[in-house]
Amino acid sequence: MSRATEEPATEAAGPVGTTRRPWLPPAVWLLGGVSLLTDTASEAIYPLLPIFLTQTLGARPFALGLIEGVAEGTASLLKVMSGVLSDRSRKRRPWVRAGYGLSTLVRPLIGLAAAWPHVLFLRFADRVGKGVRGAPRDAILAAAAPDDTRGRVFGFHRAMDHAGAVAGPLLATVFLWLAPGQYRTLFLLTIVPGLGVLALLWRLPADRADPVPAAARPAPSTDGMAAPGAGGGWSRLPGRYYALLAVLLVFTLGNSSDAFLLLRLADLGVAPAAIPLLWALLHVVKATTSVAGGLAADRWGRRGVIVAGWLVYALVYAGFARAYAALPAVGLFMAYGLYFGLTEGAEKALVADFAPAALRGTAFGLYYGVLGVGALLASAVFGLLWERAGPHAAFALGSVLALVAAGCLLAVVPAGDRRTASSGGLV
Predict the structure, then answer these.
(1) Distance of alpha carbon 400 from alpha carbon 314, whole angstroms
(2) What's the pLDDT at 221?
(3) Is the pLDDT reported for residue 90 higher than 60?
(4) Are the beta carbons of 302 and 353 closer than 8 angstroms?
(5) How far is CA 331 from CA 11, 51, 260, 340, 364, in A?
(6) What is the DSSP secondary structure assignment for residue 416, as one 8-state letter?
(7) C-alpha–C-alpha distance, residues 130 and 101, integer Å
(8) Residues 244-265: pLDDT tens digits?
(9) Close Cβ partners of 400 (under 8 Å, ≥ 6 residues apart)
(10) Which of 66, 162, 247, 371 would be 408's cystine partner, CB 3.0–4.6 Å?
């Protein structure tokens, strides 16, 4: 990896007083562009997938929950493996290239699906790619800036994700306006932004020697594997990091797939052609609040910003539990974007704060693994509860678990979390 990619921006900037530190390192801009194009392709499909599954392929809500739970669970669990292996090899670029490449090539094939199990397999393969790339990419981002700008880096990256998630649905809306009901053709055409992803990946700088001192790395054994008791680096992570993961699991158990929000909007009378447009507007909210949320986490601490986001989530899900008309549901759906802006960058920054630099791939991998287990269980339970007790009960459960998780986070993470974590006080 190039020096600008792997080292903090303070080192790349040179001696104090000679060069101003860039607002964002070049590697962050490059990976942001990759994420923008990837989300342009994936989000042209995702908001239409519940309608395609239920109306075109005849799937039921439980099948939708199973597909999304398996898809997101697979992605998150594989991030554990890729994070650990990228730490051991000290190489991030091969994982990032392979992951984005696989998703780019598999995703358009959803347009050829003849039954919902075909979509299940393709979503699984797509999310394998996401799982392979996620933790190594985040480790690159974490290494690209010092801790006082880490919230900004992750907030910017999420904003680029969301910008792509605006472009994709808008393009889908225009396409369906010109060719109503042609979902399959639209899905196949997502290979076009995918080619742009492959071009940017070709420019990703080569890995370089890890700047972290050898003493800080997991000790190898004589057979080339991790030393006994090292747990692939897991046992070297601070105890409070694992307490944070437990709290995140509580929240995630109530955080089902967003596909259910889209399905609920359709049930309440929102026209199918308007669903991609609403999805795009949601990501406008996400994109405009992500950088602000990351900056707020840097300035005032991660804990308070995350709790605020979880409270927004609880209110939105409580509102969906009681919604009986399209208009108020659309308003709640727009407010839902604020939850992402407040939490996504702050959560990742907090994970990076709690983990030693040599183990950040492992730390992000475990983080995504916990989210994956929760996503699989949450989506399956949500779909089953929707069928057995109705959508109102399912959304109410998500709201309650968000409130419980917010209280737990206040107990686990002390005030002034960023400064304490950065100084090594969280053990």
Answers:
(1) 7
(2) 38
(3) yes
(4) yes
(5) 45, 21, 16, 16, 33
(6) S
(7) 10
(8) 889 999 999 998 888 889 889 9
(9) 254, 314
(10) 247
Q: Which residues contact 138 (CB under 8 A, 6 or more apart)?
A: 154, 348, 352, 360, 364
Q: How far apart are CA 96 and CA 1, in angstroms?
A: 12
Per DSSP, the three-state class of 225 is coil
Sign of torsion, CA 128 132 138 140? Answer: negative
Q: What are phi and psi of 220, to 5 degrees?
A: -80, 155
Residue 284 in tokens: 């406008």
- How many Cβ atoms sit within 10 Å of the Cβ of residue 222? 6
**What angle do helix axes 26-45 and 275-300 make, rounded to 10 degrees?**
150
- Higher local confidence (pLDDT), 149 or 104: 104
CB burial of residue 275 (10 Å; 0-12, 13-18, 19+)? buried
Residues 228 and 195: their CA atoms lie apart, in Å, by: 44
Please list the residues that pair with 220 across neighbouring strands: 226
- Residue 153 carries which side chain, given as an amino acid letter? V
Bridge partners (DSSP) listed for residue 226: 220
Contact (CB, 8 A) for 187 and 111: yes
Contact 81, 366 (CB under 8 A): no
d(CA 253, CA 41): 28
Of residues 301 and 195, more confidence is placed in: 195
**C-beta separation of 102 from 129 below 8 A:** yes
Query: Which 3 state secondary structure label does DSSP give 331?
Result: helix
Are 318 and 395 contacting, i.e. CB atoms less than 8 angstroms apart? yes
Farthest-apart Cα atoms in the chain, separation: 66
**Where along the chain do its domains lie?**
3-9+22-209+232-422
Which residues does 112 contact at the CB level (< 8 Å), separation at least 6? 118, 184, 188
Domain 3-9+22-209+232-422 in this protein, CATH class: mainly alpha
Residue 137 contacts residue 364 (beta carbons within 8 Å): no
Locate 414 and state its tokens. Answer: 């002390």
